[in-house]
Specification:
Layout: H1 6-22, H2 29-33, H3 38-53, H4 69-81, H5 87-117, H6 121-128, H7 143-161, H8 167-183, H9 189-205, H10 212-236, H11 242-254, H12 259-269, H13 278-292, H14 296-300, H15 303-319, H16 330-346, H17 354-371, H18 378-390, E1 397-399, H19 403-409, E2 414-415, H20 425-429, H21 433-439, E3 444-447, H22 454-460, H23 466-470, E4 472-477, E5 488-492, H24 495-498
Parallel strand pairs: 1-2, 1-3
Antiparallel strand pairs: 3-5, 4-5
Length: about 500
């Protein structure tokens, strides 16, 4: 068993996470851009618009529901207090908050693991420093909020397993369930998975009172879902966030598959640089070692273990219906995987130098990731935004990956993927994006030519070939920073061409 206490686990996580997220700041704005998702800039633009317009819109005209409330309102509050705050300052502020939230989450999870397995803090630390966990601190998004909420859910549930289901604990569970859903809507899966795990354990051991706290987490989650639904209805008149609808449409077009969700789980177990295929092999070997020593049944005979397994399976199933399971979806899986990793660590003979060596290995993987940014081509989208700011005649303009472009353009850019533009959803699902662009008077597109692939056309509502035929390349931006072998391109489009009879093919212009 490892000797990593909850406090030490939290301190290690805070230090490594802070160094990881702040290191790009020393390299300049372009280095930050290459390391955070374009979707983070959806939040930046939405929150800035809300702070001045009082409504949630990306382009200043059309409603947007593709965001999670807690982070969005917090960021809007920051812009209201400091309207002139810059991109780098915003990133640093959020990174500091995220590091604190991640450290708190590790503290709560390590304490829950100690109460459940008698130890296992090392397993929690390694998940926090993993290829799926560490970069979440550097993403200025909702990830660390939902990680903290889910970790607190585990801490409260661990208290219930000990028989501490006091009225105060149950009230805290309701509040945590509400906050969790406001942090990220699909947090709601976790409380019900925990309840299932506690129910399965209670059936075997007849400990029914322990179900009360997980049930209160579920109640809070249901209240949170109601609040999110009312919020959506207030701003749009509908009840479903269009971003969820568009992602389900993408999955229906591309095919439902569990593998993206499985990939997020695998990334949470392994360090940066370790081939993904090795992670299941190593985990199977560790599980076999524990089973041969007769400890596997005892490891799984805990409500938190059963709830964590249920959560992982449930999230993989739910995400199989989502056509865009990105890196940050690991946030909802984080706590469940951390508890399972803690159970493994608590049952392994990890002593002496093995513990610091493992922590050092995972931290070194983080250093490798800092040196190898995942999205270098996003620097080109930043420069495209600056180009649009300097040339106001290039308007109206639209993009699929519109976050960075719109932020640095500092003027309206129509979002075409539908994540932050509810207005485009019918056109996408009906395959009528070209007429939509004509109706909205769009004259320019800025994005990568790979978007004109056959799969892109089917997902984006332009598979008839009209848009590919009418988009005329006018200039490329930073061809030395390609995405999928293609350079960011500014296209000119003529509305008359968009409304002409379509040809039934999609191709790259």
């Amino acid at each position: 068993m490892d000797r990593v206490s909850p406090g030490i686990a939290a301190l290690i996580t805070f230090g490594v996470a802070l160094a990881f997220s702040l290191a790009p700041v020393l390299l300049g704005p372009a280095a930050i851009i290459a390391r955070i998702p374009d979707d983070a800039f959806y939040y930046f633009v939405l929150a800035r618009n809300f702070s001045t317009l009082g409504t949630w819109t990306f382009d200043g005209v059309h409603a947007a529901t593709g965001f999670h409330l807690l982070f969005a309102y917090g960021l809007a509050g920051l812009y209201r207090i400091a309207p002139g705050i810059g991109f780098v300052e915003t990133y640093v502020f959020v990174a500091l908050v995220n590091a604190g939230l991640m450290a708190a989450a590790v503290l709560w999870l390590a304490r829950a693991a100690r109460d459940t397995f008698g130890g296992g803090g090392l397993g929690v630390v390694l998940v926090a420093l993993s290829a799926g966990g560490l970069h979440l601190v550097g993403f200025p998004m909702e990830s660390c909020l939902v990680i903290a909420a889910s970790a607190l859910s585990y801490r409260l549930a661990a208290g219930a397993a000990r028989g501490d289901a006091t009225p105060a604990l149950m009230a805290a569970a309701v509040a945590t369930g509400i906050v969790g859903v406001l942090a990220r809507s699909d947090y709601a899966v976790l409380p019900f998975a925990l309840l299932a795990g506690f129910a399965a354990h209670a059936l075997r051991h007849r400990r029914w009172p322990a179900l009360r706290v997980p049930a209160m987490l579920c109640l809070g989650a249901l209240i949170g879902i109601g609040l999110v639904t009312l919020h959506t209805h207030h701003f749009t008149g509908g009840f479903v966030q269009r971003s969820a609808s568009i992602k389900h449409f993408w999955a229906s077009v591309s095919g439902y598959t569990p593998w993206p969700g499985v990939a997020r789980v695998v990334e949470l177990f392994g360090p940066y640089g370790l081939p993904r295929v090795l992670v299941p092999v190593i985990l199977a070997g560790l599980a076999a070692w524990i089973a041969l020593r007769g400890r596997l049944r005892a490891l799984l005979d805990h409500p938190l273990s059963l709830g964590s397994l249920a959560a992982v399976l449930a999230y993989v199933a739910v995400y199989s219906l989502n056509g865009a399971v990105q890196y940050w979806y690991a946030a909802t899986l984080f706590s469940a995987v951390a508890v399972l990793a803690a159970g493994l660590a608590a049952n392994l003979p990890l002593r002496g130098a093995a513990v610091p060596l493992l922590i050092g290995l995972y931290a070194a993987g983080g250093a490798w990731r800092v040196a190898n940014p995942p999205w270098p081509w996003q620097v080109a989208t930043m420069e495209a935004g600056l180009m649009l700011r300097g040339e106001p005649g290039l308007a109206p303009v639209a993009a699929w990956n519109a976050g960075i472009v719109a932020y640095f353009a500092a003027r309206p850019v129509t979002n075409l993927d539908g994540l932050v533009n509810d207005d485009v959803y019918p056109a996408v699902v009906q395959g009528r994006l070209a007429p939509y662009l004509a109706d909205r008077g769009i004259r320019y597109l800025v994005d990568f030519p790979t978007l004109f692939s056959e799969s892109g056309g089917r997902r984006g509502g332009y598979a008839d070939g009209t848009l590919a035929r009418c988009a005329v390349p006018e200039r490329t931006i930073r061809p030395d920073l390609p995405f999928d072998g293609t350079a960011l391109t500014l296209y000119g489009i003529a509305p008359a061409c968009l409304t002409a009879a379509p040809r039934m093919e999609a191709g790259m212009p």
